[in-house]
Amino acid sequence: MNIAFVPARCGSKAIRFKNIKLFCGKPLIYWSLLSLENATSVDVVYVATDCSEIVEVVEGFNFSKVTIYIRDKENAQDKSSTEAVMLEFLNKNSFKDDDFFMLTQATSPTTTSDDFDKAIKKLKELGKDSLLSVVREKRFFWGDDEKPINYDYKNRPRRQDFKGILLENGAFYINSVSNILRDKNRLSGDICFYEMQDYNMIDIDEQIDWAIAEEYMREYILLK
After folding, report:
1. CATH homologous superfamily of 2-222
2. Which of 46, 74, 85, 112 has the most beta carbons within 10 angstroms of its beta carbon?
3. Is the pTM above the cut of 0.85?
């Protein structure tokens, strides 16, 4: 079984009630849940929340795969880790060791059902232990030691010839239930990645991210 898990707290310091604030005409969390609902490889979707407002909004979508999980208060604080609520959830449920568990962010609305399906297929075909989503960043990075990280400044490449560097975009992570319980981490073992388009780089955290993400959503998802 392939399980999707979407953490969605009430609290958000930068954007109040971020997960249910209207984004391109729908609550933000709607877009991730819609893609998961339409992903043929996803069997069930759990929204882990501490918030009655989020419960009401999500239940109003009437998605057939989506179930609400009320997370413990101690794992719904500003400093609570995502791993903590994942482990809480898995320890309270009985899943098979080889079931896939996909941590999905509600703040990455441009992720499509096709992305989820292709990522799960890739992980299965490669026989790897876990997978994370990435985007390719074609900028030149320098370290604190004042040395370039990903290019030779003496032989500056043209952008079209530059391979760039892979950036973890936080859209989703996939691992087996047994690996997560053993290693207490969303990633473990032999890791592979699923590369997404560069417009999937935005993870909405601040108000400026919101405006940019809406433009990306309209340009690359809604107008297709």
Report:
1. Spore Coat Polysaccharide Biosynthesis Protein SpsA; Chain A (3.90.550.10)
2. 85
3. yes
